[in-house]
Amino acid sequence: MIPDDRQQLQHVIDQFVGGGKTVVQELGAGNINATYLVTTARQSFVLQRINRQVFPDPIAVAENFAVVVQHLEERQRQLGTHSGFAGLLPTREGKSWFQDDAGEVWRAQKYLTGRPLARINNTAQATEVGLALGRFHHLIGDLAVERVQEPLPGFHVLPAYLQEFDRLNGGFLKARDATLRHCLAIVEDYRDMAPLLQQAGAQGILQTRIIHGDPKLDNFLFDAAQKRVVSLIDLDTVGPGLLHYDLGDCLRSCCNRGGEGGDPLKVRFDMDTCRAWLEGYCREMGESLSRHDREYLYEAVLLISFELGLRFFTDHLRGDTYFKVRREGENLQRALVQFALVGCIAKQEVALRALLCIGA
């Protein structure tokens, strides 16, 4: 729904493009930011209000975007390549963001015409997604970590999410609802594994790099024929982190044949999709993956799936205050899907380790 105060929204739009008739419509189905497609006589662009309840420093998010996009564009000029990344549309004063009288931070970017897939339909699409993420990691790989601010402190730090869950959990320890008891049991089953990635990072086994932070399938835009990825979008979460956060998130999203919002009973982690994805990714990044990087890929896929399920479950318990929901119980349903995926991944541990460690 477009905000009732159309005059206020128009005032924001005017900071990026001056005058003339505009058509505004909601864009996408993101869980965090308010996103609009703005069409004028001369161009179409994406306007976003950065969620202050999610991002503690929305100005840092907007400035990160400018740094990252500039780096990607420069690297592609150097290499003579072109991959579609949404370019920055600065304000008429040349800034990368605008802050309104209410303190809300807005930024604009060029509109890309591709469309995301609801789910991977064939192995060729999986290879394309792997290629696209590998290309992004390759292009961003020489951007100094200190040049990008941390947009979400603690993002993907699973032990911290467990601590947050534990603070809420006291009132649900004796839950009578069978679904809640099921979710509580899964949390306990995987609790001991939670710190593995962070421990490997602290020990220097895994290295901190600039990562996308949220490369789920929704953030890859395909061409009209659904054969080629034309862009990787949603760069709000780009920042310092472990490469495994990206790898785990992308694989869990692509390889779940039941879909993100589907029936938990239909969840299946598909090995053929994983193999095809890995083939694409390694074309771009294979030589950059160390033996240790590969050895922790199984943990990455399992723990990022568990992390997302835990976050959905925690948000359900506290009353749906983080993720957008369209109906009561939606976050619980999302949690059930991710927890089902965790179980499916765990059952295929031997085969997955063999596949993911190829070339280690």
Write a structural description:
The protein folds into two domains: 6-110, 2-Layer Sandwich (Phosphorylase Kinase, domain 1); 123-356, Aminoglycoside 3'-phosphotransferase, Chain: A, domain 2. The chain is built from twelve helices and ten strands. The protein has helices at 6-16, 58-79, 123-140, 158-169, 178-190, 196-202, 243-255, 271-285, 291-295, 297-317, 330-347, 349-356, and strands spanning 23-26, 34-39, 44-50, 88-89, 98-99, 105-110, 208-211, 220-222, 229-232, 239-242. Strands 1, 2, 3, 4, 5 and 6 form a six-stranded antiparallel β-sheet that branches. A hairpin with a 7-residue loop joins strand 1 (23-26) and strand 2 (34-39).
Helices, strands, pairings?
Elements lengths: L5 H11 L6 E4 L7 E6 L4 E7 L7 H22 L8 E2 L8 E2 L5 E6 L12 H18 L17 H12 L8 H13 L5 H7 L5 E4 L8 E3 L6 E4 L6 E4 H13 L15 H15 L5 H5 L1 H21 L12 H18 L1 H8 L4
Antiparallel strand pairs: 1-2, 2-3, 3-6, 4-6, 5-6, 7-10, 8-9
Helix pairs in contact: 3-8, 4-10, 7-10, 10-11
